[in-house]
Each structure stands twice: as C-alpha cells, then as structure tokens.
Design brief:
single chain, Aldolase_TIM, lyase, EC 4.1.2.14, TIM Barrel, alpha/beta, globular, 6-stranded parallel beta sheet, disordered N terminus, 10 helices, 3-stranded parallel beta sheet, carbohydrate metabolism
Length: 240
C-alpha cells in the first residue's frame, strides 16, 4: 500500500520548552530592572582607572557629588580589582562593569557580583552568555542591524555607542521609528554641554560619559574638583 505524503514541510511547529519561557521572563525582568536603575542614575560616569589607589577616592568623590551609579571599564589590568575595592569600601555606590567584549569577560564580571554590565558592541556569543546569566546587561549598538540582533536575544535596553559618531541625535531618532520600545543609554561624545539635549529624547533613560571624571583630574588626585563637576552637572540637568 503506497505511503501518503505529508502536506507542507512535515515539521512540527516549535513549542517553547518551559525553560525557554522562564529564560524569556528572566531576561525581561532584568531589562526592566536595568531601565529603573538607569533612570534613577540619569548620568553614568565611565571610569578608566589606571591605579588601584585611585579607585576608592574617585568613587567617594563621585558619590559626594551626587553620582552613585558607576561604570568601571575593563580597559585596564586592575579594573576588576578596582571595582571590588569600590564595592567593599564605598557601599553607597552602585557599581557596574563596562567594556565587556566576550563571554570570558562576562563570566569574570558575573562572578564579581556587580549591579550591571555594558558592552561597546555585541556578538552572538556575548549575547548568548548574557541570556544565560542573571546579570542585567546592556549591549552596545550603533546600527539597526545590530539592534535587531540584540532584540532577537531579548535585549531591548542598549548602549548607543559611539553616540555622536553613529549619527548623534538624528541617528538615535532614526532608530526610534522602527524600534519604538527600545530604551537607550547614549555614550561617546556626550558631555556636560549636550547631556540635557540627549536626555530630552523620549527613548533615552540615561547618558554615559567620562566628562565627570577627567583623566587629568584623576591623575592629579583632584577629588574635590571631580565632586564639583558632578554637582554642577546635576544642577544644570535639574534646571533643564
């Protein structure tokens, strides 16, 4: 008796396993937490710490100026040690790690127990590591294609980087049309003079930058000067 051919491809529709549903819920919760954290911060200083002895006094200066949420970048060999010192000695600070480039970096950061992670860009391997983790994470994007990749892994909070070089305010607005539900933290070219303009955009939850802690001031140990910059910035943003 001849066998009947099945119509269509013969493939069963994909039914999400319970573990997949749980992972989606977990990622959504992490993204919501990140939005709340970024909104509360408004401005996130990007810290490149060259000397371990600068870590704690720098964090104390920023906190004294009203800036509590800090991004310690993995651009130096002592970054992890610096973040650990800040977490231990400046409990008022909310410490995150930036410049996460690969899954190995992500694993190191996750073990540290920081509040969030940020990358300057994205790869499928990095996004997979982030979805398998409970660490709130914002991947870096500069184009619509990169943002679509981030969204395919469940990430709808992104670092827009490098913000000015990637089209500035006009570039951000062009992404807002096809992706109205994505929230951004622009970094790169954002400073005291234009932070308020970026924050006025409806899809921006915070801005990041290094203007709050200039390298020259860190190297000179001018902690009072850094506190003053923070206070002046927050006062200007409140006025705006």
């Amino acid at each position: 008796m001849p066998c009947r051919r099945r119509s269509g491809t013969g493939r069963r529709p994909h039914v999400k396993r319970p573990s997949e549903k749980i992972q989606e819920m977990t990622t959504t919760a992490q993204q919501n937490h990140l939005v709340a954290l970024f909104k509360a911060a408004t401005v996130i200083p990007v810290l490149t710490i060259e000397r371990i002895q600068d870590a704690v006094p720098l964090a104390q200066a920023l906190v004294a100026g009203g800036i509590r949420t800090l991004e310690v970048t993995l651009r130096t060999s002592i970054a992890i040690e610096a973040a650990r010192a800040i977490m231990a000695e400046v409990p008022e600070a909310v410490v995150g790690i930036g410049t996460i480039l690969n899954p190995a970096d992500f694993t190191r950061v996750e073990k540290l127990g920081v509040a969030f992670g940020i990358s300057p860009g994205l790869t499928p391997d990095l996004l997979k590591a982030a979805t398998d983790s409970s660490l709130p994470f914002a991947p870096g994007i500069a184009t619509a294609s990169e943002l679509m990749l981030a969204l395919s892994y469940g990430f709808d909070v992104a670092k827009f980087f490098p913000a000015e070089q990637a089209g500035g305010i006009k570039g951000l607005r062009s992404l807002g049309g096809p992706f109205p539900n994505v929230r951004f933290c622009p970094t790169g070219g954002v400073g005291e003079a234009n932070a308020a303009t970026w924050l006025a955009e409806p899809n921006v939850v915070a801005v990041g930058g290094s203007w709050l802690c200039p390298t020259a001031e860190i190297r000179a140990g001018n902690w009072a000067g850094i506190t003053a910059i923070c206070q002046r910035t927050l006062k200007a943003l409140k006025g705006a």
